[in-house]
Amino acid sequence: MTTETFRSPSIDTRVLELFALVGDGFVGAREALIHGDVSISTLLIDREKRIDRLYNSLQKEVSERLLTGGLEPAEIQYLVGVIRIIPELERSGDLAEHIARKAALDLSRDLRPRCRGIMQQMGEVGTLMWNQASIAYDTRDATIAGMLGEMDESLDDLHVSFIAEVVSSSPPATVAMELALVGRFLERFGDHAVNLARTVAASTTPLRLAAE
Length: 212
Known about the structure:
By secondary structure, the chain is mainly α.
């Protein structure tokens, strides 16, 4: 037989808040990057502190609950899934912060239109992937992981095109290095979305117990 599913509304609310904070941070960082808006960048860096506080409180609570003993298998499966998800969320928040910091350098000022367009596309795909990962967690939809894997391939292709365009435009070496990092950060954000959806899929697979 299979176990009943287990959800903690209190934990889920805060996990989804983390998804929202990181997603909003990424969108803001993306826009700051495209438009070179230093004021947005500063606000996003401050937001990271809120993400860290929420992450730390969740990690502490879930870890303590796992150590209490006497939990049902479904609850253990749920809590283990959460304890695997929240570090990924925290690292994704760090990526959004890194992008915001690069935006403060106004790297997009001298970009060719095609290069700017590819960078914007990468940000839009990353945002869509993140929204889908959040939906996967909220609805426990295991099928979203496969869809995000396909989207990640498209994001990888955009990343390759972005780097090729940066190289062909022959910017100063320091600018080229910073743009290469930006491209990597945008690409990695999509990877995190895929990892989150796959963790959700793994944690929603019903446990099979031996028949009595």
